[in-house]
Amino acid sequence: MTHDAEPEQDAIIQPPTRGLASLVVRLFLRTVGFIVLASIAAFGVGFVVFYTQVAALGPIDNPRADAIVALTGGYQRIDQAVQLLAQGAGKRLLISGVNPATSVGHIRSFTKSRDELFQCCVDIGYDARNTEGNASETVQWIRAHGYKRVILVTNNYHMPRSLAEIRRLDRDTDFLPYPVEKRLTLSDIAANPLMLRALASEYVKYILVVGRDYAGVIL
Known about the structure:
Layout (H helix, E strand, L loop, with lengths): L1 H12 L3 H40 L10 E5 L3 H12 L5 E5 L7 H8 L3 H7 E3 L6 H15 L3 E7 L3 H11 L4 E7 L5 H6 L1 H26 L1
Parallel strand pairs: 1-2, 1-4, 2-3, 4-5
């Protein structure tokens, strides 16, 4: 009788470790699941806000500044910037991030501009390899010439990150965004998955830049 009672007593004294472990696992999985869903929702809402702001961007009417900067990434940006220079929107133009294999003559020929305009008023930047490099090259050029008001030319979806990178290095200059318009209607995006991927990629890069700067301020 004594031997039979001991196992029952031990079973009562031992804590229900398996039940507690299972509860902890379930709570952990639910927490992780909630964080994942909340992150996806936040990303989606942020992307919609980003898209709305970018789609609303448009060229400024009759812009006037000390100078003009075009960030390479498409000849449409360069062509637009050269037109602004020819119209007197700025005194001088920097084309930042040009491929070393691209000559001044090539750019002038493509934009169908006068040779005199390029000789007097256009600078070609060959050092930048990305948007961060564009910002560094642009700020150095601005400081070398003492400009205070600059028109920035790039695609509309690229404008938020470009401004964030440049303003991180230069908070004194007044930058006027002059976006080269891209059709970003919902129907266009739905019909072109590559456009959606490009826009999403730019959004991720933008929030990384903003997050880096925000973390830098806190630290």
